[in-house]
Specification:
10 helices; alpha+beta; four-stranded antiparallel sheet; Double-stranded beta-helix; NE0471 N-terminal domain-like; elongated
Length: about 400
């Protein structure tokens, strides 16, 4: 993008600067924002891409003294205190305040597009080695993970430690009370229901934390011959269905603080307590995170008694939708498979399998935060697409 500027002028008694572009479009910039974002070395530390201007020194009622078109690729502003600022055309165009430009910037920074699915999911698959050593494949993996919510990596070695390598490929893994990685297998005196052979209902991991891990990684090292199938469901797709089907139930689940608890010993001893809405929504009422784990939902329920039954009815309707055949997808991991999924969106479960005298099923698990994953995605995009 190499936009050219046709004309620049001050508007509204100097409180706005209007830029007319060579393509005929125009942008209006508030002067307080322009002054706040002066790019000169005194106001901005370019080596850190960080603002140096102290907010207490900013006049929120500032107006321009003079604005000029330095050339068709840059504007210059002189402020009342004679401070001078310059703004590149491309920099300004990207930061236009129009709805269209802001939507384009949101897409560029956060990749909000989602592809919803049910039992018809075509599970995306990418070879593990390609993700590890090819930037284009790693970029495809993370873009698909963000858009679809789940990707299967094939062909990792069937031994512990592969998730640590994958974590380094992203940046780093999330440490929790269960360790940097954790072993999902049948254990005596299990400190988590996952460490049994029983059926696991659909859930997201760790809603007991104030900030649950954004991405989960599960590596199949050993698989039982009978049972043990994995199940997943698109929580955002189901939430949308519930919102249409029963708006009141959706409202209850998105506004009722549910108590979660987890007490035990693993990486260290822990006693964790938290409150979460089953469905977290944004300012538009759109689901942005599911916080549902029946195993760690506390017996304590901090709401008025008369609101308890309506909550249970709403949760039952949501749970029924999660478990409907049209919404859930079933598959079986093979040794060397690593399933990676959005723990804020995709609820996962497991069918039961027979217990034995030896360990017949072994998965290694780990977490990563979305901040880390999105950071790597942006860096890979810059490298793969040669973008600034």
């Amino acid at each position: 993008m190499n936009p050219g500027i046709q004309k620049v002028e001050a508007l509204d008694a100097g409180h706005f600067v209007r830029v007319e572009w060579e393509d005929g479009s125009e942008s209006r910039y508030p002067c307080v924002w322009l002054r706040d974002n002066c790019q000169c070395p005194h106001c901005f530390l370019h080596s850190a891409r960080a603002r140096r201007l102290v907010f207490e020194d900013l006049d929120v009622n500032i107006v321009v003294k003079e604005v000029a078109l330095a050339d068709r690729k840059k504007i210059s502003i002189t402020w009342p205190d004679e401070h001078a600022s310059e703004y590149e055309a491309e920099w300004l165009k990207k930061r236009c305040f129009s709805e269209e430009a802001r939507a384009e910037m949101r897409e560029d920074l956060f990749l909000p597009e989602r592809q919803y699915w049910g039992s018809d999911l075509q599970l995306p698959q990418i070879p593990f080695e390609e993700v590890m050593y090819n930037d284009e494949s790693a970029y495809k993996w993370l873009c698909t993970l963000k858009k679809v919510g789940i990707v299967l990596l094939r062909g990792a070695a069937a031994r512990q430690g592969e998730l640590v390598k994958l974590g380094h490929r992203i940046g780093f893994l999330r440490l929790t009370f269960y360790g940097p990685t954790w072993q999902v297998q049948d254990k005596a005196d299990a400190n988590n229901v996952a460490y049994t052979t029983g059926k696991l209902c659909f859930h997201t991991d760790y809603p007991v934390l104030q900030h649950p891990p954004g991405v989960q990684l599960l590596h199949c090292i050993k698989q039982t011959a009978a049972g043990g199938e994995s199940e997943v469901v698109d929580g955002f797709n189901v939430s949308n269905k519930l919102k249409k089907q029963n708006p009141q139930a959706y409202q209850i689940l998105s506004s009722t603080a549910v108590d979660y608890t987890d007490v035990g010993v693993d990486y260290c001893d822990f006693a964790v307590q938290n409150k979460q809405n089953i469905i977290d929504v944004d300012s538009r009422g759109q689901a942005v995170r599911i916080n549902y784990n029946n195993a760690t939902r506390d017996t304590v329920f901090d709401i008025p008694a008369e609101k308890v039954r309506p909550f249970y009815a709403a949760l039952k309707e949501f749970d029924d939708l999660l478990n409907s055949t049209e919404h859930k997808f079933t598959y079986k991991l093979k040794p060397g498979d690593i399933v990676t999924f959005d723990n804020w969106r995709v609820l996962h479960g497991r069918q039961s399998y027979p217990s034995g005298s030896e360990v017949t099923r072994h998965l290694e698990g780990a977490y990563a935060d979305w901040d880390v994953v999105m950071s790597r995605l942006r860096l890979l995009r810059k490298r793969v697409l040669n973008r600034d």
